[in-house]
Design a protein that fits this description.
The protein is mostly helical and 246 residues long. It has one domain (2-244). 74% of the residues lie in helices and 0% in strands. It is built from 10 helices and no strands. It is elongated.
Length: 246
């Protein structure tokens, strides 16, 4: 409940900032990077709701178990550690959709004029995009937590992830506000836009249907690459534990 109230409070603050941006663009007879005022309102409130669904930060379970030595128990289970952490995370995300996502959307809809998708295909594409965003975010969180296998203190890596996932993920402002070359570099060179920016762009129909499908394909590629990296890092870490007698 406290997290939902906090997200809603910041939703109001960010909405007024975005409305000012949209108003300035409208005064010049244009749109802010292709977003009109209702789209930016939906962008803000859906983004606030997705924070708890994809879980951008705050997950340190693996790092804590590595530090305490309890991770050895995970290696004795018949389920691969990556899968053992992924499945509960997907269940958590499904529950968060009912609590952390719906409340901010309802608050935003009551207080502002929001944009609702005009194409029926957008709704299933948004659902797929949220699942892919959750997978990408889990993989990123797993990798930064796994740094604890090699570092005595992984808090610096976790803080760096928290900052980058918010700033470069599209939480504070749409990545498309940046120059085109910078936005393209972030989309193709980092997984961060796949956390929030991509599902939000799909939801507000910032692009045509073909563009939405392209964004989903990009997300799927990042999810596959990062999950494969999780498996490889875990395998490498297990060898390190054996060498150390863990």
């Amino acid at each position: 409940m406290a997290a939902t109230v906090t997200n809603s409070m910041f939703g109001f603050l960010r909405t007024y900032v975005m409305l000012a941006v949209a108003g300035s663009a409208a005064a010049l007879g244009t749109q802010a990077a292709g977003y009109d005022a209702p789209r930016l309102v939906t962008y803000v409130w859906a983004g606030q709701g997705l924070i708890g669904v994809v879980l951008l930060w705050g997950w340190t379970d693996l790092a804590d178990r590595i530090r305490s030595g309890d991770v050895v128990t995970d290696l004795l289970r018949p389920v691969h550690p990556v899968l053992g952490y992924l499945l509960p995370d997907l269940g958590r995300a499904a529950y968060a959709l009912l609590t952390r996502f719906t409340v901010p959307i309802a608050v935003g809809a009551l207080a502002f004029d929001m944009y609702w998708p005009q194409r029926a295909a957008t709704y299933p594409m948004f659902a797929v995009s949220v699942v892919l965003a959750t997978l990408v975010c889990f993989a990123g969180r797993f990798l930064v937590n796994a740094a604890a296998y090699w570092l005595l203190d992984s808090r610096g890596v976790l803080v760096a992830w928290a900052v980058c996932s918010g700033v470069l993920g599209g939480l504070y402002f749409p990545i498309r506000f940046l120059p085109e070359w910078a936005a393209t570099a972030l989309y193709l060179g980092t997984p961060f836009p796949s956390l929030l920016q991509v599902p939000l762009d799909v939801l507000v129909e910032r692009d045509a249907a073909a563009g939405q499908l392209g964004l989903l394909a990009l997300q799927a590629c990042w999810a596959a690459v990062l999950l494969a990296a999780c498996v490889a890092v875990q395998r490498r870490a297990e060898r390190r534990l054996v060498v150390q007698g863990g």
